[in-house]
Amino acid sequence: MRLGVTKNDRLVVQRGDEVVDATELAPGGGRGTGGPLHALVDAGWEPREWSADVLAPLPVVPAAELVWKSPIPRPTKVIGAPANYREHVAEMAATSTIAEWGVFLKATSSLIGDGDLIKLPYTDKRTDHEGELALIIGKTARHVGVGEALDHVFGYTCSLDITVRSSEDRSTRKSFDTFTPLGPWVTTADEIADPGDLELRCWVNGELRQSASTKELIFGVPELIAYASSVMTLLPGDVILTGTPAGVGPIVDGDEVTVEVERVGSMTVGVSALGATPYDKRPGA
Ligand code: MN
């Protein structure tokens, strides 16, 4: 099943070729700061609960009303995976991989949705796109083994891990507002038997910049969950970005960036330099 959240906090679901409004089926009518999808995840909902009979009476949402928001706008954390594809490690001239670096955290306030704008913070510092497969945790996970890790996934979605190439810690360079586009559709885990066999592509202005299979991940999805849960408790709704393949490059004002993950979906966002300032004018410089 594919689920998404619109700007007006409606929970929408794909029903055949149509999109329907399922907000009324979300716990508490989908109200609450986490939005309707997070409420569903917290309730331990399973896709089989929404049979064709349950979805049949729901109203169709016209395509023009599908203005997206991050499907999970306020997770307790967004976890990132540095240097998790060997060819990307090589292009970054890095000597370490995720095995040495471990995971990092991004501010949850950096999340935006499909159709939104990435806002470049600096006029004179390179800012890169990193197209990534993302997953949403469905069940609390702590010290989870590789073999049971996938049981803790709610679903998969498209993401970008936008990054300023400057000297600060990753958590700073990747946490600017708008730096984590996510969505629009979350494909539930029951439809993705093997997240380690998905084609991932990223285009800028229609030019293919990244193309790889998640087969090439150093820490695959089960290993990432096992590792992250050995450090911190993963809570329902938490987002894990699995890392980016080779081909990262700069984005500039007016660009359009698209990420597509096989069987998961496709997301497109714009890029704006409105309000960007020179790096040496940042506070404290
Ligand atoms: Mn990344």
Any low-confidence stretches, pLDDT <50, length ≥5?
A: none
How widely separated are the two ends?
A: 49 Å
Structural class: alpha+beta
Number of strands: 18
**Which distinct ligands sit in these coordinates?**
manganese (II) ion
**How large is the radius of gyration?**
18 Å
The chain-level mean pLDDT equals 96
Structural shape: globular
Number of helices: 6
Helix fraction, binned, reads: 10-25%
Largest sheet report: 10 strands, mixed
**N to C succession of SSEs:** EEEHHEHHEEEEEEEHEEEHEEEE
Relative strand content:
25-35%
Main features:
285 residues; alpha+beta; ten-stranded mixed beta sheet; five-stranded mixed beta sheet; 6 helices; 18 strands; binds manganese (II) ion
Outline the structure in words.
This protein has 285 residues and is an alpha+beta fold. 13% of the residues lie in helices and 30% in strands. The strands form 3 sheets. Strands 1, 2, 3, 4, 5, 6, 9, 10, 12 and 15 form a 10-stranded mixed beta sheet that branches. Strands 7-18-17-13-14 form a 5-stranded mixed beta sheet, with no helix packed on it. The protein has a 3-stranded antiparallel beta sheet with strand order 11-8-16, with no helix packed on it. A hairpin with a 3-residue loop joins strand 17 and strand 18. The model has no long low-confidence stretch (mean pLDDT 96). Bound molecules: manganese (II) ion. The site of manganese (II) ion (MN) has 7 residues, from loops.
